[in-house]
Amino acid sequence: MTTKKNLQHNNSLRTFVLGIMALTACFFLGNEAMAQSYQKMYAPKHKGGDFYMGAGIGFSQSLAENAVKSDFIMHQIPSADVLIGYNFNPYFGLRLTGGLNCQTSRCSNAAHKAMPDVYGNGRYNFYCLTGTLSGIVNVTNMFFGYDSERPVSWALMFGGGYLSTFGFSKKINGWNEYPYYPVDGKNKGYGTGYAGIQCNVRLSRPSELAIEVRTNATDNKYNGVWNQNHLDFYLDLMVNYIYHFRNGQKLYKFEVPKKVAYVDPVLRDNSDEYTETLRYGESMQTTIPFYAGFYYLNDVSTKRAGIVAKFLKENPQVSLKVVGHPDVIDDQDVEYNKMLAQKRAEAVIDILVEKYRVSRHRLQATYDDTVLQPFKTVRDWVPAVNFIMVSGAAEEE
Length: 397
Fold this sequence. Notes:
Number of strands: 14
Structural class: alpha+beta
Helix content: 10-25%
Order of helices and strands: HHEEEEHHEHEHEEEEHEHEHEE
Radius of gyration: 29 Å
CATH topology of the largest domain: Porin
CATH architecture of the largest domain: Beta Barrel
Number of domains: 2
Distance between the termini: 76 Å
Largest sheet: 8 strands, antiparallel, barrel
Shape: elongated
């Protein structure tokens, strides 16, 4: 026969599942408008992975007996975890998590009402050490394309592991002298499995917050053994600070396209070091080539940026407008071309600042919706950024 306690347990689990479904529905509806703009800009060309570490705090709430009191959340004890993970690509990664879950459980209402002098407030504390291996599926990147600048992304989590219980309140030794609500207070280990949803909030290039809600299932008896039901569920809410060690928050390196014969002349033409002369208001002869449709810099374009850095070092009174341009072939998408041109200018500035130590105050990113150097035929590599010399601080448009 289904007990009232089991019904409450099932209702809690059903409510949580419905909440997850509602969050997922809101995510897809809210991101549908972004899909078209991201799919073209951020094509899935990546190689290499992303290694990260993190730590967080939160709460662990059992969904069994101890969920029946409306004031129970006031008695929660903070939990903590540490994690290490690796994203193999923009869509999938693995993570190891170790945590200390501080649980506050309680006896049944029947036992509490029958012998209040024995059970007191009915609550007891214990701890769980957990270790889990989980898969992380980034559904935002999967459906809307990878974007290194996206402020928020969503992921699904699933995995399993092991937990060990210890540190039970000594009061349960007295409880176990009576048959109403025996609690197994011995230190033991159990298998566990869990699933959940994760919201990643970008803080800076190398760091983010991962807000996680996950439900766990384990074959234990730390909520009491009176009904011989060892299966228990508990809900974790954790906020983790995560730091990425490879390629910053950009996470994944773009794949450098293979060179073919007709590309080499374009790269060679853009690899000569020109003798630059100071001409305020005019463009430098040096330009930066980009692969069509992208805004990453490869080895050739990075070396070209070094020539610009050398010129600035030799002329400290000069600042530059860094002008990004779209590709040779106009795809009639004005917003796409504008975004691509702007991103190219910003990528060049980042290289000049981070690799060549040029002051960002001497650089201003802007864009031009015309191609820098049209060709009669389609080229994979195109000159796409040029530099206009200005006096003093870069002028504002």
